Amino acid sequence: MKTNQIAGRCVLTCMFVYLLIQIYYLSNYVIPSAAGKSWREFVCLFLIQSVFFAVCIFAVFLFFIFQRMKRDRTSPFEALLLVNEEGKIKKEVLLQDRHSFLVTGAKNGKGVFIDSMQDPDADRYLYGVCNLAGGCWYFEVLSAGRPVGLRRGTDDMIYRMKEGMLYQLTAADVIYADTYKIVIREQKNIWREQNGSDSL
Fold first, then answer.
1. pLDDT value at position 8?
2. 198-199/89-94 β-pairing
3. For position 41, what pLDDT does the model report?
4. Which of 41, 111, 124, 173 could form a cystine bridge with 104, CB 3.0-4.6 A?
5. Residue 29: predicted pLDDT
6. 171 by DSSP, 3-state: which?
7. How far apart are CA 80 and CA 65, in angstroms?
């Protein structure tokens, strides 16, 4: 959002400077030399100026549409951390260029996994699915057989998520499945070891 604002202000500043230069050129050169001459120069100048501003406005319009589409397809979070009952990070899942993932569990109830939508393990229990839409992540519980909890921000309560409902996730939310929890990592451009990170 900040990048869009800076780009928009730069474009508007350039257009304003160009308009000032145009006014200066008209008042000091074109108008004094136009006495008794044809107004064709004025007409051509204003036509060129109109085309220039139309192109600028159209370019800004296209730029903001492109940025909006890019933002809607980009994850606001950097990664997910799958933490076991001992508080140890079992897996880190990077979310760059990812648009969905599954939260699954072992049939015996011991162990939680984050799997790709393209290659799910048929032998695992399906807790729910998480999809990226409009630049936001939404979690949906797909089965009520095992409870899935959600803690909002600094709230001390863990709420049981209902089957079939969409829950928008924020950076401070924590998802609970079995004895595991899924923590969202929002920080950008941090260094990490390649062996300690897994992609879906």
1. 63
2. parallel
3. 65
4. 124
5. 64
6. coil
7. 29
Q: Phi and psi dihedrals of 125, rounded to 5?
A: -75, 140
Amino acid making up residue 46: F
Residues 200 and 198: their CA atoms lie apart, in Å, by 7
pTM of this structure:
0.61
CA terminus-to-terminus distance, the chain: 28
Residue 97's alpha-carbon distances to 85, 112, 113, 116, 183, in angstroms, are 29, 23, 20, 12, 19
Question: Dmax of the chain from CA atoms?
Answer: 96
**Which regions in the chain score pLDDT beneath 50?**
1, 189-200
What is the spatial distance between Cα 107 and Cα 112, in angstroms, rounded to a whole number?
Answer: 10
> How far apart, in whole angstroms, are the C-alpha atoms of residue 64 and residue 76?
18
pLDDT at 176: 92
Bridge partner list, 101: 130
The 10 Å CB-count burial string (b at 16+, else e) for 126-135 is bbbbbebeee
